[in-house]
Amino acid sequence: MKLFCLLLCILFYSFFTFANHGEIVQLNWDTHYRVNANETAYSNIPTVDGGQIWVGKTSAKGAGKVDGWIYKTDLVGNVLWERTIGGKEDDILQDIVPTKDGGFLVSGSTNSKGNGSFDVWLLKVNAAGILEWHSTYGTKNSEQGGRLLVNGNGDYILAATRQFGNYEMTLSSSAYHLKHFIWLMKFDDKGTILFDERVPVAENINITDLHQTLEGGYILSGVSANTENKVTPSEAFILKLDTQGIIVWKRWIKNGAASNMIHDILPLQNNTYLLAGHAVNKLNQEDVNGLVVFIDGMGNIIWEKLYGTIGTNVEAFHEISLTKDYQIMLKGKRYQDDMHTNSPEWNVIMNVHGDVLWQE
Fold first, then answer.
1. How many whole angstroms separate alpha carbon 348 and alpha carbon 330?
2. Model's pTM, two decimal places?
3. Residue at 228 is within a domain
């Protein structure tokens, strides 16, 4: 049970993204924005003044049970402003990208607006975080916002999740079947849908990362129950899509009978990809270690390795990038049992073969 709770916390942490990929830098300042346990930041991006803008959720303020939370910090981490956006029920802001006019497009999930229990929520705010417009997308079933990106044409791509349910009637009984989909949508800067493609997947879906490929299509990572092969419910998958959102291939990043997850994807110039995340160590089911996987353009694994210590920590990589001299840089955490205290940041530099050159 303790290991399950740790993995669940790592899943939530994976939605917190670091926008600046590159060299290791010295820590100049460090601060906390959480008033209590009721605030969570899921994503952040840099602003032109050297600060950051963050999105997440809060239940300590706002109009409903949980509200979307957006706030701006300056160069040294001081909060310049914060806003809550939402209704009477639960509303969450999950990802953010800049828009052409200096504002921001934000994705999320809302239970206060729309058609169903949760709907995909797309919002446009200006540079001061003031809401300009918002739209919901969904049905009477449940839809969840996911990851956003701006593609090479300046359009906005959202990888979300969607559910469809239907009753199957027989002579003696009826059963309700729920189908699960990755929902890929392209928008213009007014929120108009330019394409809408649904890819069937197994249940328990969470989208963890999204990138554009060299061909102009998309590659995303997620975690889902792989009911096709009846393995554990924490199984990572990678999905490659063409420019119209049509599936090219889907690959499960298998770990035998043990759980794993991909948090970040790094596309490389030769149409290969590096994946970073965590996996349960098959040699010791109580250990969770950092995971790096190198795949080719068809999703075939070239190599995969676990990193960390045996018997002491739960370790996970949350970001992977290239340094200026083309070494692999990974950022993550080494968690302790309570997930809050004594959980240091973990930085690793390795070569293209996965050999560790330096870590702290």
1. 5
2. 0.78
3. no
Using CA atoms, how far residue 131 sits from 60, 70, 79, 80, in Å, is 20, 11, 19, 17
Specify the number of domains making up the chain.
1
Phi-psi region of 122 (alpha: psi -120 to 50; beta: other; left: phi over 0): beta
Among candidate residues 42, 31, 24, the one with its CA nearest the CA of residue 76: 31
Mean pLDDT per block of 10 residues along the chain (360 residues) reads 44 40 40 58 88 90 84 91 89 92 92 82 93 88 87 90 68 67 87 85 79 92 62 73 87 73 90 91 79 94 88 82 91 69 79 90
Name the residue range of residue 179's domain.
31-109+118-137+157-201
Residue 77 within a domain: yes
User: Residue 49 phi/psi, 5° resolution?
Assistant: -90, 10
How large is the greatest C-alpha to C-alpha distance in the chain, in angstroms?
69
In a domain, 316, yes or no: no
Give domain status of residue 234, yes or no. no
Q: State both tokens at 120.
A: 């995909």
Q: How many C-beta neighbours within 10 Å does residue 273 have?
A: 23
